[in-house]
Amino acid sequence: MTDKELVKKAIEAKNNAYVPYSKFPVGAALLTKEGRVYTGCNVECASYGGTNCAERTAIFKAVSEGDRNIDAIAVVSDLDDYTYPCGICRQVIVEFGKGIKMIIAKSEDDFRVHTIDDLLPHSFTPEDLEKMDGGINNGI
Ligand SMILES: O=c1ccn([C@H]2C[C@H](O)[C@@H](CO)O2)c(=O)[nH]1
Fold first, then answer.
1. Is the C or the N end of the chain the one with fewer CB within 10 Å?
2. What is the dihedral of CA 118, 62, 132, 87, to 10 degrees?
3. CATH code of the domain containing 38
4. Is residue 71 part of a domain?
5. Cα of 48 to ligand 1 centre, how many Å?
6. Where is the CMP/dCMP-type deaminase domain positioned along the sequence (predicted)?
7. How far is the CA of 78 from the centre of ligand 1 (A)?
8. Residue 74 CA to ligand 1 centre (angstroms)
9. What is the complex's ipTM, to 2 decimals?
10. Contact 27, 40 (CB under 8 A)
């Protein structure tokens, strides 16, 4: 799957965004190293804090289906601009690998490519927990 094809999947996913409060639809599409695609949209909530971003929707769908080997994530909104993931999403994404490719799209023909390590430098990750004596998340 090309970057452009993954962006197209994110644009399609954006159609499902549930955004009665912000009116700011976002779509994401995640490619696994095995070649499977999981899409996501933002899902808002009257309590506001219950809102889930498009990126995390896609990640939680993948992980809950047993797919943790994330290769790339494409993100797009309705803005005529690039929409970068929020801080919470960056932290969740880096959980699954500093090398994950981030495709930040304005359209299917106009996107920027980064790694999540570029977007969240000097991050705190599972490897830091492993540095504790014996590790505190052994066996996970
Ligand atoms: O990268 C982003 C940025 C924002 N949002 C959502 C959260 C909220 O529903 C709306 C406005 O912040 O956009 C995402 O889904 N992904």
1. C
2. 40
3. 3.40.140.10
4. yes
5. 11
6. 1-127
7. 11
8. 14
9. 0.98
10. yes
Atom of ligand 1 nearest to the CA of 25: 13
Rounded to an integer, what distance in angstroms lies between the CA atom of residue 16 and that of residue 25?
8
Going by C-alpha positions, the residue among 99, 101, 94 that lies closest to residue 123 is 94
Q: How far apart are alpha carbons 48 and 36 in whole angstroms?
A: 31
**Which amino acid is located at 137 in the chain?**
N
What's the whole-model pTM score? 0.95
Residues carrying an active site annotation:
55
pLDDT digits over 58-108, tens only? 999 999 999 999 999 999 999 999 999 999 999 999 999 999 999 999 999
Whole-number Cα distances in Å, 119 to 58, 59, 84, 87, 123:
18, 17, 9, 9, 10
Q: Which domain holds residue 121?
A: 3-130
24 lines ligand 1 (CB under 6 A): yes
Question: The tokens of 96 are what?
Answer: 């699954």
In this structure, what token pair is assigned to residue 118?
């570029």
